[in-house]
Amino acid sequence: MSSRGAHPRHPAPYRYTIVERLYLPLLSGLWVTLRHFVRNFFGRGKTYTINYPEERRLYSPRYRGHHILTTRPDGSLRCVACFLCAAACPAECIHIEAGEHPDLNIEKYPLLYNIDMLRCVFCGYCVDACPEEAIIMSNNHDMAYFNRGQSVVTKDELQKPYAYDESRLGYRPHYPEEQAQHAALRHGLVDLVEEARRQGADSASRTAS
Amino acid sequence: MPTTTAPLPLPERFPADSIQLREGLDQPTWIVRREILVDLARELTADPETGFDLLLDLCGVDYPDREERFEVVYHLASLRGGGRLRLKVPVPEDDPVLPSLIDVWKGADWFEREVYDMFGLHFEGHPNLRRILTHEAFQGHPLRKDYDPARRWILTEDKMYRPQPEPPMDAEDDMFERMTINIGPSHPAMHGTFRVVATLDGEIISASEVEIGYLHRCFEKMAETHTWQQVIPYTDRLNYCSSFINNVGYCRAVETLLNVEVPPRAVWARTILSEFSRVMDHCVCNGSSLVDSGALTNFWYLFQPREEIYGLLEACSGARLTVSYCRIGGLAADLPPDFEARCRALLETIPAFIDDVEKLIVSNRIWLDRAVGIAAIGGEEAVNWGWTGPCLRASGVDYDVRRDNPYDLYDTVDWDVPVFHGGDVHDRFRVRISEIRESLKIIRQLLDRGMPEGPFIVDDPHVALPPKEVAYNQMEAMIYHFKLIMDGIQVPPGEIYSAVEGANGELGFYVLSDGSGKPYRIKVRPPCFPIFSTFSRLINGGTISDAVVSLGGLNVIAGELER
Ligand code: SF4
Ligand code: SF4
Predict the structure, then answer these.
(1) Which CATH architecture has domain B16-124?
(2) Cys-Cys crosslink for A7: which of B121, B299, B380, B459, Cβ 3.0 to 4.6 Å?
(3) Beta-bridge partners for B32
(4) Based on the domain organization, do A90 and A128 belong to the same domain?
């Protein structure tokens, strides 16, 4: 640490220059706003606002949104009710009740698997914890509920078919970046906002479906 | 953290048994009898060269099994001499009184109120010792170990404290009618839920009182009931404008206790992303303080770089605001393949916005008239109040944790610490603008150096989860995976104070472990807490509109202030 002089006892306020006294720098400020105005007016500038929800930004393939419970090829849940996700959850919002299959050779399964979306902090710890890749996340972040009861989503809702739309997957154990949902992302840098605008109509139709 | 070097001379005139020396992991620790506390504090601050001029943090710890149940811990720093010192003062439960240090460090004011609130210890000589973070109707002291974290209270309005700031009475005052108004807690100018009650004399604030605690969620108590990893998402919500820096601060503290070496790739990424977070935070702060003074355009210009940086953070971590991207021992996931290209693109775009704002504002007399000399404070006084960060550097004190106690890669890059001397709103603005430029400089140098190869998290199954592919296929890794999630990281007993330079000042984590798998106590040193405690002093005598402009420039973040 360098040794320094005493701390200044009194503030020494900035002194205006003559030019500043005469309000002259306002001109350069006006020039800045004019330049932005002209550029945006002719559509040359980059505007950062998009017409959500008709247009959506492209989300990162790691986006931590609504959870998905994955299934085996036969349609049963992969989850074996091991409670690791519930133990890892810092918000204590996963509630599981395990069911025993009559045939002991077959693993346990969740009778009940509820996530309280209003408690969830979307940290992704449950995904990290799961040893079966049974819980992953989607990039769906529009969740709205009319009452608190609705915010507790059950295992049926957690395995909705949209989950298997490649383009809606989010945080999951391996990031198959090379097969990420957006072809554009493969080739390095993309301007997500511009891309969203370009694909505006496209993604709007995808959301609607 | 490499802090003090030379052993501190023990003051001679105190009886031998009143101070016991301990060599801490990070800094020397003195266990002090409370009887000599005030004298010792005066002695420690006396020397103008090496005196401990900054009271960083003051907190309580509860040890129900000890004879003297409570311990109050003071963290001191000497800005000119470079020393650090921890004082611990044991306090018995049946006589929970200790002297207030408010006369030595004004910054002790709110910290002592917080200890009173959380532990029920009384500070003799404190002029205004009442609850600060919890409601008046709250019963008990939440950070005591015997307080049940699930306990709920019904908080009624009739018990609520009603601030009545009393202005000094002059004879001529009687001619005017005074008015007391509320600014906040939910008021667009307050940037969060703060409440200022001001007594007005015309448009001049003649007295004011600040109330906080509306966003208190007892982060520290919650941390004690979770495992070490589970605290990371909670730290996101401290300073949510630059949540990545909080992640780094917390993880660094725990890593030092664990004595794990973070791989170079993770350190490199942490430094870069911390600087981007700082840029973002400064953009928000400057943008919103300009909105308060009516300069709305700048807000749009400054929020554009922020949007770009959010894109980068989202690509890395999967979330824009609450990133939780650090893990103890490294990062949560490897950097995305286009990380470097994205960073370079950001370095190209950000300066243009900053230049535009500078052209609009820095010599604009309309802004200067609103900002120069407003809420001014001298360096010496600011240090005494416990200020750190950009606000302190605007008052002419050259102190930055990144340079003075370097961590991560800050000592390997070439950059400057901008210092201004006005101590007012204008210079706080200029410090931030210059710091954005310095941050970009740091990032550019690190990118030029190239991304280090290697793992992104330590390869230690006691600290970091094994990679999924390994955990799926190998029994041993699977067992470690289970153990780490069920029991958490086993941090050896010890204590550490570790600080990083947050976007608004020194963000410290005082972490205590008893080896049980959960933190024993985590105390955050929120940089804006001491800064905001000065707010009354800053706005008294000014107009209401000055108060609004000065609040924006202080960068007070409710999530961090009230934890
Ligand atoms: S994302 Fe985090 S908070 Fe939400 S359910 Fe998973 S572990 Fe719990
Ligand atoms: S960790 Fe995975 S397998 Fe275990 S209960 Fe949770 S979702 Fe099911």
Answers:
(1) 2-Layer Sandwich (3.30)
(2) B380
(3) B19
(4) yes
Q: Which residues pair with B210 in a beta bridge?
A: B196
Q: What is the mean pLDDT of residues A41-57?
A: 78
Nearest CA to ligand 1 atom 4: A120
Q: Chain A neighbours among B 398-437 (CB < 8 Å)? A: 398, 404-405, 421-424, 426-427
Omega of the bond leading into B493 within 30 degrees of 0 (cis): no
A193, two tokens: 């906002």
Domain span at residue A85 reads 67-174
Nearest to B253 by CA among B414, B60, B68, B494: B494
Please give the distance, rounded to the nearest whole angstrom, from the Cα atom of residue A116 to the centre of ligand 1. 9
Tell me: the pLDDT tens digits for A85-97?
888 888 888 888 8
Q: Where are the domains of chain B?
A: 16-124, 158-211, 222-552
Q: Does residue B402 contact residue B428 with C-beta atoms inside 8 Å?
A: no
Tokens representing B463 are 């600290």
Please say whether the structural domain B222-552 has been given the CATH code 1.10.645.10. Answer: yes
A26, B365 Cβ separation under 8 angstroms? yes
How far is Cα A145 from Cα A123, in angstroms, rounded to an integer?
Answer: 21
CA-nearest residue for atom 8, ligand 1, is A89
Contacts (Cβ under 8 Å, ≥6 apart) of B343: B272, B276, B312, B443, B447
- Angle CA(B431)–CA(B208)–CA(B189) in degrees, nearest 5? 55
Instruction: Tell me if A60 and B336 make a contact (CB, 8 A cut-off).
Output: yes
Q: Is B179 exposed, middle or buried (0-12, 13-18, 19+ CB in 10 A)?
A: exposed
B159: number of Cβ within 10 Å: 10
Report ipTM for this prediction. Answer: 0.77
**For residue B396, how far is the Cα from the chain centroid?**
20
B36-87 pLDDT per residue, tens = 888 888 877 877 777 788 888 888 888 888 888 888 898 888 887 778 888 8
User: In the prediction, which pLDDT does A3 show?
Assistant: 44
* Interface check B318 vs A, CB under 8 A: yes
CA distance B299 to B443: 24
> Picking from A39-48, A107-116, B510-519, which range would have the lowest pLDDT averaged per residue?
A39-48
Contacts with B431 (C-beta within 8 Å, 6 or more apart), sequence order: B390, B391, B393, B394, B418, B419, B420
What residue owns the CA closest to ligand 2's atom 5? A81
Nearest CA in chain B to A141: B319
pLDDT at A43: 75
Alpha-carbon separation of residue B287 from A95, B279, B283, B549, B556 (angstroms)? 42, 12, 6, 12, 14
The amino acid occupying position A99 is G
For tokens 């700082």, name the residue: B278
pLDDT at position A1: 41
Of the candidate ranges B175-179, B414-418, B503-507, the one whose mean pLDDT is the lowest: B175-179
Residue A146 within any structural domain of the chain = yes
Task: Answer yes or no: is A204 within a domain.
Answer: no
